[in-house]
């Protein structure tokens, strides 16, 4: 089997590439290296191409016969999407349409798509399952929901088989130390915390402590990046036996507030983490926690890192000695 990984030089994509290659699948990475890293591509060839340049996509898809595509490319900062919506719709919707067009032209009929908890908006119940209404509150989430709708239409019109995996908060790193999270600029809580402990950045901020939550800070469902990677492998198997457009929520089913993550990180590092409370970040929902019962039942997905400490430990190991 041969799979094209669009965005495979990025954080989550690189972990998927490693897992698939370990399963004997031939992986090729397509990436424009806008936020990804050449050094993260270690288990297959890298082709530099851009989803916003259809000619470059056609070149990649005509050079090999791929059985499936996995699509990780996106602009994905919630706050930035609010101030630069055109950039987000162009990158996430137009970019995906270009990829889908090229796949259709070259008869590739299976896609795994990186969707997000941000498609739901502010939750109406404690655990968000796939029946929960989708009312995204920022352009990032809206752009991902638009792609999910496009995939449903593509299933009907062109028999495209697809799986949209709605990751909740990806975190952690591969225990090998070869790959991990490295975003520039870094906006995510966990890397910011560790970089602050290591003295690589100053002024860690807790973005809002007046949310309607148990301690006033936002609650998120952190899920290990290798558990997400495993869901991609299982999505490939699912598409072999199922038609249509599948959608699965991926999280651990437990939420941690920003303050709780800080306390757990102090345990893991054995150090005190200094922070100050700042204003809320635009576009942040108060609580996002997944029910992943459907993924467990239909994909056979079983996270190996159900607790926050295990996730934080692998992230801490990476940040102390990052390979890139
Ligand atoms: N990190 C999370 O917590 C999280 C949560 C939910 C969903 N997601 C989604 O998962 C996906 C991967 O996230 P990540 O954190 O690994 O991001 P990332 O920025 O590390 O990886 C994205 C990769 O895509 C590449 N890319 C971007 N635009 C491209 C284009 N036009 N053409 C070619 N390559 C392009 C980048 O260079 C990068 O290598 C994204 O779609 C994101 O929206 C991430
Ligand atoms: O320096 C920081 C960074 C973040 N936060 C807060 O920590 C929480 C988590 O933030 P972050 O790590 O930036 O993740 P999210 O904004 O929740 O977004 C991630 O998780 C979403 C799904 O839940 C995905 O859609 C996004 O792509 C992914 O970046 C939020 O409440 C932030 O306000 C801080 O307090 N200080």
TrEMBL record:
> What SUPFAM superfamilies does this protein's entry cite?
NAD(P)-binding Rossmann-fold domains (SSF51735)
- The NAD-dependent epimerase/dehydratase domain extends over 3-251
- Alphabetical UniProt keywords: Carbohydrate metabolism, Isomerase, NAD
Q: What is its EC number?
A: 5.1.3.2
Task: State the pathway, as annotated in the record.
Answer: Carbohydrate metabolism; galactose metabolism
Q: Which reaction does it catalyse?
A: UDP-alpha-D-glucose = UDP-alpha-D-galactose
InterPro entries reported in the protein's UniProt record? Epimerase_deHydtase, NAD(P)-bd_dom_sf, UDP_G4E
Assembly notes:
Homodimer.
Stated family: Belongs to the NAD(P)-dependent epimerase/dehydratase family.
NCBIfam families tied to this protein? galE
Listed PANTHER family: UDP-ARABINOSE 4-EPIMERASE 1 (PTHR43725:SF53), UDP-GLUCOSE 4-EPIMERASE (PTHR43725)
Q: What is this protein called?
A: UDP-glucose 4-epimerase
**Species of provenance:** Marilutibacter chinensis
- Organism placement in taxonomy: Bacteria, Pseudomonadati, Pseudomonadota, Gammaproteobacteria, Lysobacterales
The gene that this protein is the product of is galE
